Amino acid sequence: MRVVKGAVDRSLQAIELLAREARWMRMSDIAAELELEKGPAHRVLAQLCEQGWAEQDEQTSQYRLTLKLSLLGQRFLHGLGLPGLVQPILDELAAQCHELVRLTVVNEGTLAWFAASQGAAPGLMYSPSMHSPIALHATSVGKVWLATMSNDEAIGLALRGGLGQPNGAGTSKAINSVDRLIPELELTRQRGYGLVVEEAEPGVVAMAVTVRSLIDGAIVGTMSIAGPVLRIPPERYDAFYALLREASAKLGAVWPRQSVDRHVNEAA
């Protein structure tokens, strides 16, 4: 049975596409991605432009998002108080380990980068993008999150995230099959943290733990320490793991689950 999508569905899908691409796009490319004819695609984009969600370049006729969505997101997060609660904890951990510390949040069946703190000295910084998608099978944050699930659930998420695909995320050292993923998840469960050594990027090691809300025990995100292999040898793993566990407990204690519930109830 063919599912007919409404105007709201098409508009939201267009916003998600433009946010994901974060660049000027031709209408024909947008229509193809959304599986729409050019006429309906043009009407969706015209409506988004009229409402201030998107803009069209007068010379090229291409489209991109305005900052309206980003500003609304910032207002929502500041309303919850989350950035102000987590940043001091990340800063403290970065000062202790002298490396990059990053926090992800669980969002729509995957992880998304949320906040970071740089502890390395200028000139020695490892500073990757905070906007790139997270390959669950090739990152420390992804591995430790998958390890909290059943193998079947973890495999499903990893496959949807690109596991086993040609030219997939990560280096040649990254896990590229289900057969390699399962023992890695078991090892992650045993030691308590996710670990990648030159799997996500050459010359970089990262380790991560989950963050659980103390209110209900739900996993709300993950936190990692990352830096050059030469600065994070295996001899430092135990010390970094202890720092991560301590910081994770602090995050879980301040995570504003009650604040989130209050905002949801107010909107209902």
TrEMBL record:
Superkingdom of this protein's organism: Bacteria
BP GO terms, sorted: negative regulation of DNA-templated transcription
Pfam families hit by this protein: HTH_IclR, IclR_C
Protein's recorded name: Helix-turn-helix domain-containing protein
SUPFAM superfamilies: GAF domain-like, Winged helix' DNA-binding domain
SMART domains: HTH_ICLR
Classification of source organism: Bacteria, Pseudomonadati, Pseudomonadota, Betaproteobacteria, Burkholderiales
Keywords: DNA-binding, Transcription, Transcription regulation
GO molecular function list: DNA binding; DNA-binding transcription factor activity
Domain IclR-ED: 68-257
Domain HTH iclR-type: 5-67
Organism: Paraburkholderia madseniana
